[in-house]
Write a structure and sequence with these properties.
With 350 residues, the protein is an alpha/beta fold. It is built from 13 helices and 14 strands. The protein has one domain: NAD(P)-binding Rossmann-like Domain (Rossmann fold). The longest helix has 22 residues. It is globular.
């Protein structure tokens, strides 16, 4: 690559892992992040300690078009991850959600169009662009899991699923998703979209609104009770971060193949679990009981979502390789190595 790779939101969970993978290749990376998310300074310190001058930090916000333009000038590629990521926050603050996710993405696209038109742009979208999807009358209960009554959905929802934005977050990310694809059609940019399901792994500091796998595990390790919104039988496909990073690097290495396309990126049917399934996995892994209580469903919650990733698999040969049990063990080991999730009494006595 002739210039550095710009990663907006690069101090976050996925951004840090992609930045590390690129730096290991010897690629120079520019992290563009406003550093407002909790704990991201730990990710920045880890990147600088491990990769030194190969990683440059720019503290700025994607809502600032001038700052975005300054960062884009001279880069060889853009990985656009900066976002407001929580449905609940979008419901409380829809204007901020729009400004960050929709307007911020347009700022990135315009900067690339005018200053670096040959640079591929890869965008992190979400399964929430497909909306709420299935109503309860379309589901049956199989043990601790809701599953579709229609067997045609056994592979999950594919990219031909109609877009049906639900919640301000779905609207803002969906608008950004469509802008990214349209800049390939109208302006000929090498833009591509990953509609991601639930990622988890090291460098993730999960909390209730985002990063639920890590949040569940951290809560279990620290002995804190969980709140389950809904009945706990809602299904998600989870993907370990190393598998996700492989897909992003494939797109970066083959921008012409990906340009103008949206691909689902998730664990698929083989890594689909319910919230209650995950709790059972965590209890088996830690040997501890997990305390939890139920609360009402939240706006935009999907009772069943599994990514059909066959389009990405057909295009690239990519498939998930890390099973849920292995991924959870790796995440637990990392959390414990970082002292995250230790019970309060253990932290006091240490």
């Amino acid at each position: 690559m002739s210039g550095p790779v710009l990663i907006t939101g690069g101090a976050g969970f996925l951004g840090t892992n992609i930045a590390a993978a690129l730096a290991r290749r010897g690629v120079h990376v520019v992290i563009f992040d406003n550093l407002t998310r909790e704990h991201v300074e730990r990710n920045i310190a880890w990147l600088k300690n491990n990769f030194g001058e190969r990683v440059h930090i720019t503290v700025a916000d994607v809502r600032n078009a001038n700052a975005v333009a300054d960062a884009v000038a001279g880069v060889s590629a853009v990985i656009h991850l900066a976002a407001q990521v929580a449905v609940t926050t979008s419901v409380l603050h829809p204007v901020d959600d729009f400004e960050i996710n929709a307007r911020g993405t347009l700022n990135v696209l315009e900067a690339v169009r005018t200053l670096a038109p040959q640079a591929p742009v890869l965008f992190a979208s979400t399964n929430k662009v497909y909306g709420k999807l299935l109503d309860f009358h379309q589901l049956v209960l199989d043990g601790a899991r809701h599953v579709p009554a229609d067997r045609k959905l056994r592979f999950g929802f594919d990219e031909n699923t109609p877009l049906s934005f639900y919640s301000p977050y779905g609207c803002s990310k969906g608008a950004a998703d469509q802008y990214v694809l349209d800049y390939a059609r109208i302006y000929g940019l090498k833009t591509a979209v990953f509609r991601m399901s639930c990622l988890y792994g090291p460098r993730q500091f999960g909390h209730e609104d985002q990063g639920w796998v890590a949040h569940f595990l951290i809560s279990a390790l620290s002995g804190k009770p969980l709140t389950i919104y809904g009945d706990g039988c809602q299904m998600r496909d989870v993907l370990y971060v190393d598998d996700a990073v492989r897909a992003w690097l494939m797109a970066l290495d083959n921008p012409d193949m990906f340009a103008g396309h949206a691909f689902n990126l998730g664990g698929g049917p083989g890594n689909a679990i319910s919230l209650l399934d995950l709790i059972a996995h965590i209890e088996a892994l830690t040997g501890r009981s997990v305390a939890y209580a139920f609360d009402a469903w939240r706006p935009g919650d999907q009772a069943w979502y599994v990514s059909d990733t066959r389009a990405l698999e057909a295009a690239t040969g990519w498939t998930p390789t890390i099973a849920v049990e292995d991924g959870l063990r790796r995440l637990a080991n990392w959390l414990q190595s970082e002292g995250i999730g230790e019970p309060e009494r253990e932290r006091r006595s240490a």
